[in-house]
UniProtKB/TrEMBL annotation:
Location(s), subcellular: Cell membrane
Membrane spanning residue stretches: 21-45, 319-342
Histidine kinase domain boundaries: 494-623
Domain HAMP: 339-391
Membrane topology summary: Multi-pass membrane protein
Primary subcellular site in the record, as a coarse category: membrane
GO MF annotations in UniProt: ATP binding; phosphorelay sensor kinase activity
E.C. no: 2.7.13.3
Catalysed reactions, semicolon-separated: ATP + protein L-histidine = ADP + protein N-phospho-L-histidine
Protein name stated in the entry: histidine kinase
Pfam families the record matches: HAMP, HATPase_c, His_kinase
Annotated GO CC locations: plasma membrane
Length: 637
């Protein structure tokens, strides 16, 4: 996976790298605008969607609360009716009679007590039926209220009502088909009734019968079974046994089955949220549940979100289309403006192509003061510099050819001198003049080292050999008053250094050391040391001469690193007699080292008057390898 991602990133980088700057600018412009707009739009639409759902939930929760209020009112009406039915004294006396009544007593009960009782109970048109089922064998049935209890003993709710011991039991079911319906009740399309069931007893707490007060479900749950419904929502009633009661002809159930609602209800029944949502056949729905404890039923409001989401989606699509049109328009305008801005850059690019083909006399007609104009100015300056370098290179090449001819002539002269010195050396040895022979050998070595200049870099051991020849010759001049001590470890003998950079230091030591008057009788000892320090090689040339005065020492160290103009000014202000000891040789060596190795390297003079003088040379630690003088590599320690 990571490898695929890297390959994709690499391909995208290559593709973007091949695009023109103009196209890259437009793409970046689109990304800078498009990405924030997408993020903001997503956030806003999500917020709008959530607010819409919340408002819809509040609206349908309000409808649900209205239905619950209606249910509470109907429950109160049925309970009040039931209480009136069992508390009427005349009816109670009739139901509790313990002897057979004659015909006159029955007629009197019906015309007086029962007629007024019936009128009073059925005063509320929403009450479908009021029935008193009695087990008293002395009680005769009076339609439509008083019936024999044997008519209901086979009802599924009958045992439960008896167990309730006088406590009200609510049930939703079909009415008994074997009992004649109240002629005053309206036709019930559903055939379903909400029943209030309650046991009533003799004064001695013996079972007497069961009271049933019924109301059609369409009247009890008015909004649930109303024919005037919101096409996007519908309420359901789920009783304690899990049966659902609703208006299945509602528009919501054109695309949603009652069974699916029941399944979703069972999945979320124990959740504590105010609502839950689900999808069915691609359509989103919202269910708002509520539990009615008194009836032990669940009242659900099922809301279709299709229309709501359609409105949000339509708004979103409209904004997206407007955004695409706006981005396309801005991209076109940007393309036009970028064409004007990058036109100068294209001119500069074409000029560069001509230069690449070898035309260095290109005239760039761009004089603006912006970044492209500045780039064109520097490009013109670069072409000018290139032309100057070409002229300089041609002149240098001509000078090199001339130098090669002179070098060839010098080599011829050098061979003649070497042969002459060799003949003189042999003649001195034949004559027994061995001192002269040794001096000629040293002189020949110095001449060969000076004249055979094939590289600017040599080994430290080559430079030391040259110094030994120099000291040998100077000992003839100073009557063997010089002693050279080399304390260079063998591991540093291959150290790279500039050719003829050590001789000026030794020559300076000889020149100023032998000039000392109070040490004329002593030998001048010159010691050369080498050691490593901070990834550098340090070479010290130490002599035991009289040293340098402190003021003179500061002047010498200052003049070694001065710029040329300052050095010439300072030198011109120095007396002619003092210029000879102004350190020009040391300055030349330091400048060469700085030029090749950088300002962190060079030489430094230390001295204590009357004791010693020490010149320290700092070089990068580079070991010449491969047997040649042109291959150096850093030392690894």
């Amino acid at each position: 996976m990571i490898k695929l991602a890297r390959n994709w990133v690499t391909k995208m980088s290559i593709t973007i790298g091949r695009m023109s700057i103009q196209l890259k600018l437009i793409l970046s412009f689109i990304c800078i605008i498009l990405i924030p707009i997408i993020l903001v739009s997503w956030y806003l639409f999500n917020d709008v969607y959530l607010k819409t759902i919340k408002d819809l939930e509040k609206k349908n929760q309000y409808i649900l609360d209205i239905e619950k209020t209606n249910v509470a009112n109907n429950t109160a009406v049925m309970e009040r009716t039931a209480q009136l039915a069992v508390s009427n004294n005349g009816v109670k006396e009739y139901l509790e009679t313990l002897e057979e009544l004659d015909t006159a007593a029955l007629i009197d009960f019906k015309t007086k007590t029962f007629a007024s009782f019936q009128y009073f109970l059925f005063n509320n048109p929403n009450i479908a039926n009021i029935r008193l089922y009695t087990s008293n064998p002395y009680v005769h049935e009076f339609w439509p209220i008083i019936f024999n209890e044997e008519r209901i003993v086979d009802k599924p709710w009958y045992p439960t009502v008896i167990k309730q011991n006088g406590v009200v039991w609510w049930d939703i079911s079909e009415s008994s088909s074997d009992i004649i319906q109240n002629s005053t009740s309206t036709d019930n399309a559903t055939g379903l009734y909400v029943s209030l069931l309650r046991e009533f007893k003799f004064p001695d707490d013996r079972h007497l019968g069961v009271l049933e007060v019924t109301m059609e479900v369409s009247n009890f749950f008015q909004k649930t079974f109303s024919s005037v419904q919101d096409s996007e929502s519908q309420m359901l009633v789920i009783d304690r046994s899990g049966k659902a009661f609703t208006n299945e002809a509602a528009p919501v159930f054109d695309k949603l089955s009652v069974e699916e609602v029941m399944r979703q209800f069972q999945l979320h029944e124990h959740e504590t949220g105010d609502s839950y949502s689900f999808r069915y056949n691609g359509t989103p729905y919202l269910i708002i549940p509520s539990y009615i404890d008194q009836l032990d039923v669940h009242l659900l409001n099922v809301v279709s979100l299709a229309s709501t989401l359609s409105d949000v989606s339509q708004t979103r699509n409209t904004i997206i289309i407007a955004m695409i049109i706006l981005i396309a328009l801005l991209s076109f305008i940007s393309y036009f403006l970028h064409s004007l801005i990058l036109k100068k850059l294209q001119i500069l690019r074409e000029s560069m192509k001509k230069v690449r083909k070898g035309d260095f006399n290109v005239d760039i007609a761009i004089t603006s003061m912006d970044e492209v104009g500045e780039l064109a100015f520097h490009f013109r300056q670069m072409l000018k510099k290139i032309n100057e370098l070409i002229v300089e290179a041609v002149n240098r090449q001509a000078a090199t050819k001339e130098a090669e001819l002179k070098s060839l002539k010098n080599q011829i002269d050098a061979h003649f001198l070497y042969n002459t010195l060799e003949n003189l050396k042999m003649l001195a040895e034949i004559e027994g003049q061995y001192t002269i022979s040794d001096a000629l050998t040293s002189l020949g070595g110095m001449m060969r080292y000076n004249l055979q200049w094939t590289s600017n870099h040599v080994r430290l051991k080559d430079e030391l050999a040259h110094i030994h020849n120099y000291i040998a010759i100077m000992n003839i001049r100073y009557d063997h008053s010089l002693t050279l001590v080399s304390e260079v470890p063998p591991g540093y003998m291959e150290q790279e250094m500039l050719k003829m950079s050590l001789q000026p230091l030794v020559e300076n030591a000889v020149k100023h050391g032998m000039r000392s008057q109070h040490k004329a009788a002593e030998k001048l000892v010159i010691t050369i040391k080498a050691y490593e320090m901070n990834d550098n090689i340090v070479i010290e040339v130490h002599d035991n001469g009289d040293g340098i005065e402190e003021s003179k020492l500061r002047e010498v160290n200052l003049m070694i690193r001065l710029e040329d103009a300052e050095y010439q000014l300072m030198r011109s202000q120095t007396a002619r007699s003092e210029r000879e000891g102004s350190g020009i040789g040391l300055r030349n060596v330091d400048q060469r080292i700085v030029m090749y190795y950088g300002k962190s390297h060079g030489i430094r003079v230390e001295s204590v008057q009357g004791s010693y003088t020490k010149v320290t040379m700092t070089l990068p630690y580079l070991i010449l390898a491969g047997g040649g003088s042109n291959h150096a590599q850093p030392a690894h320690r």
